[in-house]
Known about the structure:
- This protein has helices spanning 2-26, 29-41, 46-60, 67-82, 176-179, 191-197, 211-221, 234-239; strands at residues 90-95, 105-109, 114-119, 147-157, 160-167, 182-186, 209-210, 226-230.
- α3 (46-60) crosses α4 (67-82).
- It contains 8 helices and 8 strands, in the order ααααβββββαβαβαβα.
- Strands 3-2-1-8-4-5-6-7 form an 8-stranded mixed β-sheet, with helices on both faces.
- A hairpin with a 2-residue loop joins β4 and β5 (160-167).
- With 245 residues, it is an alpha+beta fold.
- The chain folds into 2 domains: 2-41; 46-239, L,D-transpeptidase catalytic domain-like.
Amino acid sequence: MKYRILTVIGVLIFSFAFSSTDEIKYSNNSEVTAEISVETTTKKTFKEKVADLYQTFTLNSATMPKLTVFEKAMNGYSKLNEAGKVSNPLLTIIDFDLSSKQKRMWILNMDTQEVIFNTFVAHGKNTGGEFANKFSNKVNSHQSSLGFYVTGETYYGKNGLSLFIDGMEKNFNSNARKRYVVIHGADYAEPEFINRVGRLGRSYGCPAVPNKLAKNLINKIKGRSVVYIHKNDKNYQAVSKYVNS
């Protein structure tokens, strides 16, 4: 059976070689040139590839961040991945342009192209009320920090299971570990808190998530996955080497 299959493949290759030669021999040269030109122009740009990937995620998932935010996240993710800093193929996107009453955290599986978490996330108490507006990299500022992070190891603290995140951007989030800006669970990040107060509660700068999800979420993204905290902040968007192509 094995030899019969090989024989059939051989015959197909042989016949294709001759038919292809004959076709090229008698075809118009301009047609051949046109075909080669079409093949050359079908190479997609990075932005086009990202748009295709976004469409796949959209088909596989009930919700996604805005395409413009996803594009910026993918710019940074690609650069960190190329630099060998990524081991866990999950990408966390937090959109601080949105109200704290909205589910503004998405965790995307880059291997399966699907969203595995979409949930609430708190910002720092000195960053704003319902909306996040002020950001800092300073110790004791109690403000959130923008930009790209790589997740580290877990530990148990006063907020239970918590996850270190290391800031990759010197002027924006490099003091995250020193500030103990970590991902952890909190009662004030639960949707019930919004029903009582009219907005989500606030942290000391940590991206705190609902207690009910915290353990599972943290165990998924620990171990060198990427976190991108977004805000349409003119200073950050202009300076960051990660969000720009």
